[in-house]
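Regression check, flavin-adenine dinucleotide case 327:
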Amino acid sequence: MSVDRVLAVVIEHDHGETKPVSLEVLSAARKLADQISGKVVAFCFCREANLSGDLFIRHGADEVRFLTHPDLQHYIHENYVSALLRELEKSAFDYLLLPATNNGKELSAVLSARLGVGVAADCISISVNDGDVEAVRPVSAGKAHSTVRFTGKKPHILSLRPNVFRNPPIARQGEIVEEAIQLPEFSQRVRELVKQVGSQLDVTEARIVVSGGLGMQGPENFKLLEELAEVLGGAVGASRPVVDNGWRDYSNQVGQTGRTVSPDLYIACGISGAVQHLAGMSSSRCIVAINSDPNAAIFSVADYGIVGDALKIIPALTREFKKVLTS
Ligand SMILES: Cc1cc2nc3c(=O)[nH]c(=O)nc-3n(C[C@H](O)[C@H](O)[C@H](O)COP(=O)(O)OP(=O)(O)OC[C@H]3O[C@@H](n4cnc5c(N)ncnc54)[C@H](O)[C@@H]3O)c2cc1C
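Current build output:
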């Protein structure tokens, strides 16, 4: 097969596990590569090659490069940038795709500045038009979408929104290489990364998000949301005033100045539906709103609305889901 263009994908991993969003990025790259006679190279920077290269191939990689160094056990952007720049100098890439996670966004911004190339952040769709790759990304706090076409110096960088580009794996062949690399003397090392207990699931990566607003009345009632999220295998989100009040950590905040989420199911509990909140969750596949005010703005974006007291409805939902999911 003749290869016209080469796409690089950066794999994100945490505590020895591949982040599911990396598999989404790989399959999006595969789809694109199939339309432009492209080849997909997956870069996995790690201390040792202990992740499944076959999994990356099944999700779309033609070649998996495990690049190992003791200081690459955890993500530190200086180390990743050094390692990536070295790879981009060695071979020419047309596109560089990363997850639009905190790390992926940081890495794409730094690389874009260092290489003087364009970046399309938080893409929700990518396609090929007249042989050129086009990316669609939300702008103006999600109120509009812009279509980006790349010109100029390569590689063109795209970060892809989690939970949008899911495709099942398929049986494929590919090549896996492993190479110990050098990093500059100043490379930084994290001695130990402590994982926060009780909030393992990142709100941007969860397929189900149960979010609470001021209507939850107080921090103690977020226990109800945690119980529902646990039964559903989801994560807990929050509106900004909830975070400003110190009821929840900032990492939970959904909205214009918080995280952008696109889960399969978003349950908004006691959230009024201000535009700044909608900016972070309106692309969810299914939205359920629970609010005591039948005129709350959140109902205008909801697929299902429940008018009533969230503090009574949430435990009832948890009980029912438990029954259904365990039967
Ligand atoms: C520059 C800027 C950036 C912002 N960024 C964000 C952001 O990132 N994320 C964000 O969320 N906000 C953001 N905001 C704030 C935003 O404008 C709203 O103030 C905020 O989203 C409202 O939060 P809320 O829905 O929890 O509270 P409220 O607007 O006070 O709504 C509470 C809701 O709970 C309902 N309720 C009350 N009691 C119950 C009950 N027992 N059961 C069920 N429902 C009940 C009420 O009817 C009401 O609809 C931003 C604002 C600005 C100016």
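Comparison notes: The mean pLDDT is 92. The two ends are 50 Å apart (CA to CA). No diff flagged against the previous build.
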